[in-house]
C-alpha cells in the first residue's frame, strides 16, 4: 500500500506543500525549539522541502532533513544553499530504511508525516527513531487527532485554487483506523487523481505505542502553544524520551 511514490509529486508541491504559511512554520519551530538545548543535533524525518529544517537551522540547530522525494530534497538543498546554512543537510531516504544509532538529540516528524503504512511498519519506523536518538534524546510526532476527525468527519470537499478544482472523497475504515482519501485535481492543463491511505491514531494508541517501543516521560499536547490535549484538539503532538 505504498501510495507515497505517486502522491508526493510536483502537483502536491505546488498546491499544498508550498501553500503552508510562514506564520504556521514559525509557530511549529518555536514549539520544537523549547525541548532542545542550543546546537542540538536534530533529524527532520519527512522534511519535504525543508520548511522546518531550515528554520531550525537558522536558530542554530544542526539538522539533517530526510525525505523519500528526490524533487523535494533538491528544492530543500537549494533553499539551504541560498541561506548559507552549513549546519543543515538534506538527503533522500526512506523512513522504512533508516539505520542511525545514537546520533541525534532529537527526531521530529511534523505535520502528519507519520502513519503512512500499516501498523507493523509504522512501529518499525518508530523503533528506528528510538535507535537514532542518544540517551535522553526526544522524539516529537505531530499528527491529526483521530477522535476529532471522527467526531467531525468530512466525507467530501470541493474547492478551487488558482483556476484548479480539487475534490476529495474520504472513507474511514474502522477495523484498521485508516482514512482513504481519493483526490481529483482538474484544470485547463491538468487532470490527475490520487489515493492517500493514512493511519490515524488516538492519543491513547500513540502513548501505548511510544511506551511499547521504549520511550519514557511521554507527554501529549493539543497544539503548538503547549495547550492541554483534549477530545477537542485537532492535533496530537506527542513527545517521548529515550
What percent of residues are in strands? 25-35%
Largest sheet: 7 strands, mixed
CATH superfamily of the largest domain: Vaccinia Virus protein VP39
Tell me which CATH architecture of the largest domain applies here: 3-Layer(aba) Sandwich
What is the H/E order? Answer: HHHEHEHEEHEHEEEEHEE
Mean pLDDT: 96
How many domains would you count in the coordinates? 2
Our measurement of the CA-to-CA distance between the termini, rounded to an integer number of angstroms, reads 30 Å
Helix share bin? 25-40%
CATH topology descriptor of the largest domain: Rossmann fold
Q: Identify the CATH class of the largest domain.
A: Alpha Beta
Number of separate helices: 8
Radius of gyration: 18 Å
Strand order of the biggest β-sheet = 3-2-1-4-5-11-10
Principal-axis shape: globular
Compute the number of strand runs: 11
